[in-house]
Amino acid sequence: MTHKKGARRKRTKSQQSPNTVDPQPEKQVRMSENTPPPPQPVIQQSLGYCQQTPPYSGQYVAPHLQFTPLSNTPPPAQATSIAGIDSIMQRFDTIDRRLCKLDSIETQVSQLSQKMTDIDKKVGSLEHDLHEQSRKIVDLEASRNFDSAQCNDLKSKQSDIEKMLKDEKSRNTEMAKNLKSLESENKRVSEEMIDLQSRSMRDNLLFSNFDELMNREDRASENCITKIKTFMETDLGITDAQTIKIDRAHRVGGFNPAKKRPVIVKFNFHQDKLRVKQAAFSMPKETPCKVSDQYPKPIQERRKKLIPHLIKAKESGKTAYLSYDKLFVNGTQYTADNFPDNAPNNARDA
Predict the structure, then answer these.
(1) For residue 319, how many other CB atoms are within 10 A of its CB?
(2) By the number of CB atoms within 10 A of the CB, which of 43, 91, 101, 174 ranks highest?
(3) What pLDDT is stored for residue 52 in this prediction?
(4) pLDDT at position 75, please?
(5) Beta partners for 206?
(6) Strand residues in the chain grouped as ranges (E)
(7) How far is CA 274 from CA 200, 266, 267, 268, 350, in A?
């Protein structure tokens, strides 16, 4: 059988590629029944080319998986396959690294998710707090409006009160002026009354340290006029004492066994009073009975304040005497209200 030059020759089954699978199902069944499945080749990467692990003895090995001893230099067809496997392995390594990164990213995403959940909870809590604060602000605004209205009312009332206080101040000022005027008038009236009392007592003399009877009946029958006239004759040396006309004589105050009440004598004639008073000034000091003018109680209080100054002025050798409620020291007049404490010394130095 001749073939044309350049014509393609048909290959037999034995000449076909060892990688071709025989499509005979009966053989495949028989092989699966009689022969265990071939082991998968273990591909190892060493020295830059692929090495196949030889099968165990007695096992069927497909022609394309037959063991080929390694040599120092792989064939060219296998070098290309090894380069592809290296590329695939590099891709696997890249994918593995990326998967590791994806695991890390997944962990981070899980943590971020947890944090976002916490943030959502906090935001919800903040929203609740914000709602409460908003409600409180609304309440505060309502309270402020109410307080503002109250303040306006208080301002109005305060204005009215200030006006009333102003009126009261002016009224108080007027009352103070009236009170001062009334005090001045009261003082004037009081002085007039004291003067009237003094004028009603200008004919009276006060006799003190006279013995008083203890029995009530004896005190009721006591004749003070006879007792005073006898005193004027024996102690004052007035010979015509029985002729002196006395309107009345009696004791003053309530009875006290430990104290002798003074006797008030009202003379009918003022000259008789002056004569008895002048005689009393000449009476010896050791005489227990004393004679003095009768004054109203306010005048007595003023005289009590002036008497110590009178004594000091007389002890200093200056001329001093007490007239009614006034003290005269070397011609200078003093009263109980304006008498300085060193007035006698000043009078002494005058």
Answers:
(1) 11
(2) 43
(3) 44
(4) 56
(5) 264, 292
(6) 43-46, 49-52, 204-208, 246-251, 263-267, 290-293, 320-323, 326-329, 332-334
(7) 15, 12, 10, 12, 32
Amino acid at 67: F
Which of 312, 342, 346 minimizes the C-alpha distance to 331? Answer: 346
For the chain, give every domain's residue range: 74-171, 205-294, 296-350
List the structure tokens of 163. Answer: 């006006």
Non-local CB neighbours of 342 within 8 Å, separated by 6+ positions? none
> At which residue do the structure tokens 């002016």 appear?
170
- Greatest distance between any 2 Cα atoms in the chain: 220
Which pairing describes strands 332-334 and 326-329: parallel, antiparallel, or unpaired? antiparallel
Distance CA 226, CA 214 (A): 19
CB of 291 closer than 8 Å to CB of 235: no
Q: What are the tokens at 190?
A: 């009081």
Give the mean pLDDT per block of 10 residues along the chain (350 residues).
49 48 47 48 41 47 48 56 84 85 85 89 88 88 86 88 90 89 89 87 87 82 88 87 89 85 90 89 82 87 87 87 85 79 43
Distances (CA, A) of 26 to 23, 29, 33, 61, 348: 9, 5, 11, 18, 171
**Cα torsion through 168, 174, 179, 182, rounded to 10:** -150
Topology of the domain covering 205-294: Alpha-Beta Plaits (3.30.70)
Q: How far is CA 137 from the centre of its chain?
A: 27
CA distance 64 to 96: 31
